[in-house]
Amino acid sequence: MIEMSEPRNLLEAPVAMPPVAHARFSIGDVVRHRLFDFRGVIFDVDPVFANSEEWYAAIPAEVRPRKDQPFYHLLAENAEASYIAYVSQQNLVVDESDEPVEHPAIQGLFDVYSEGRYRLRREHRH
Fold first, then answer.
1. Other C-beta atoms within 10 Å of 49: how many?
2. Would you kindly state where each structural domain of the chain is located, as residue ranges?
3. Rounded distance, CA 105 to CA 120, Å?
4. Is DNA damage one of the keywords (predicted)?
5. Separation of CA 20 from chain center
6. Which ranges of 27-114 would DSSP assign to H, the alpha helix?
7. pTM of the model
8. Strand intervals (E) in the chain
9. In this structure, what is the dihedral angle of CA atoms 20, 25, 26, 30, given to the nearest 10 degrees?
């Protein structure tokens, strides 16, 4: 037999909600890592950490970011390669070079680069 409890009065004990961090950057923004020499264009945003624990544990403790902040997926580049990066908000700054990012996947997601940001292709907007 399942025991049913009396409905709780929600005004008696409010549930504390964790603070919500607001994303400083948007899809299409060109950003630079504040510690490492790479830059990229944002193509997705997670409101909080959403990668594997193995990935997180591999970051040296002295530079490991908090999980309770937005994390950004970047089409990234450095002097040697193009790749996809996953970066915490605390480690990103606006890239002020006004140079486009030379990642091969950009054409598939974005169509126009103007004033330091890319515009998402029509078929990817919602």
1. 18
2. 30-124
3. 12
4. no
5. 14
6. 53-57, 106-109
7. 0.82
8. 30-33, 39-46, 71-77, 82-88, 92-94, 110-114, 117-120
9. -160
Average pLDDT, the chain: 89
Contacts for 48-55: CB closer than 8 Å, 24+ residues apart: 48/21, 49/88, 51/86, 55/86
Nearest to 31 by CA among 101, 103, 82, 104: 101
Place of tokens 């990229």: 40
Q: Do 103 and 82 meet the contact criterion of CB atoms below 8 Å apart? A: yes
Question: What is the Rg, in whole angstroms, of the alpha carbon atoms belonging to the chain?
Answer: 19
Tokens of 78: 């450095």
For residue 4, give both structure tokens. Answer: 């049913």
**CA 82 to CA 80: how far, in whole Å?**
7
Query: Exposure of 76 by Cβ count < 10 A (0-12 exposed, 13-18 middle, 19+ buried)?
Result: buried
Tokens of 80: 């040697």
pLDDT, tens only, 77-109 = 999 999 999 999 999 999 999 999 999 999 999
